[in-house]
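Quick log. Single chain, no ligands specified.
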Amino acid sequence: MPRRNRHRQVPSGLGVATGWASAESGDDGEWLVRTVPGAQATKTYRCPGCDHEIRPGVAHVVAWPADEAGSVADRRHWHRSCWQARSRRGPTRRR
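-> predicted structure:
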């Protein structure tokens, strides 16, 4: 019999996995965050933390506001280190 992958419902909360994303809280609000392994990174994105490109093959994170979980337009791809340092940095200037 083939194996079935079932998504289990997990109550949302800080630091709790919600399906394929985890909830994080910071000074800038509550976020849903998903890690993208390098093997699954197939496009080029611009990191809002440093304004540099995230090239295909580079592991990174995708984050979006927790209150808008379904909004694809609000998702941003960040270098992992930029995401972790976002509270210590000022906003970057967009090109």
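The two ends are 53 Å apart (CA to CA).
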